Amino acid sequence: MADHPHRKFDPAHMDRLDSPERRAFHDPESIVQALPLQGGERVADVGCGTGYFAVPLARRVGREGKVWALDIEPLMLERLRHKAAEHELPQLEALQSDENRLPLPEGCTDLVFMANVLHEAADRERFLEEAVRILRAGGVLAVVEWRTDLPQPPEKGPPLAHRLGREEGGGLIRALGLREAGDFPAGPQHWGALFRKG
């Protein structure tokens, strides 16, 4: 991802990603339940980190489905593999990824999920093009990002200057030919939006 000051990898960051404090304002289970997703479907969690969303996504699609959890950081993926084994989720596969090249074939997913990663991409358009490439025709791109319209300076998350607002993010995605497919609740600090391919 882009070399923002808040993005330099620190192994201690993995504990913060899974902390009870984070769950208090950014609940992964309720966000995943809001997605248009059914059992047996195929999902890519792009920028999955330690599996904060990948684990509930895997539970949602069930053993007949598939979740590819993609990240550039090997230590995050190692922790996620332990989680998948601990929770007995054989449908969850952690894969090493490059920011601008996802290790999946074209059109293989029903839904691509990306939470708190688009604002970090060095080349957002190229990053999104890869997400669209692995999405089947009619599939959905689900994006969760930090809000920029808060009434006061944020107490959590990246500085406002590093965030990506709903309108700007939606514009980038619509420019690639996807159409708006609605918003979904993502907590008080975040926006969530759906975009359909084709």
Can you tag this structure with a few keywords?
198 residues, alpha/beta, Rossmann fold, 7-stranded mixed beta sheet, 7 helices, 7 strands, 29% helix, globular, disordered N terminus
What's the mean pLDDT score? Answer: 91
**Domains counted in the coordinates: how many?**
1
- CATH architectural category: 3-Layer(aba) Sandwich
Main β-sheet, in a few words?
Answer: 7 strands, mixed
**Total number of helical segments?**
7
- The radius of gyration is 15 Å
Highest-level CATH class: Alpha Beta
- Give the topology string: H per helix, E per strand: HHHEHEHEEHEHEE
Q: Tally of extended strands?
A: 7
**Unreliable spans:** 1-7
CATH topology: Rossmann fold
Helicity range: 25-40%
State the secondary-structure class: alpha/beta
Walk me through the structure.
This protein is 29% helix and 24% strand. By secondary structure, it is of the alpha/beta class. It has one domain: 3-Layer(aba) Sandwich (Rossmann fold), CATH 3.40.50.150. A seven-stranded mixed β-sheet has the order 3-2-1-4-5-7-6. Strand 1, helix 4 (54-61) and strand 2 form a beta-alpha-beta unit. The protein is globular and about 45 Å long. It starts with 12 loop residues before the first helix and ends with a strand.
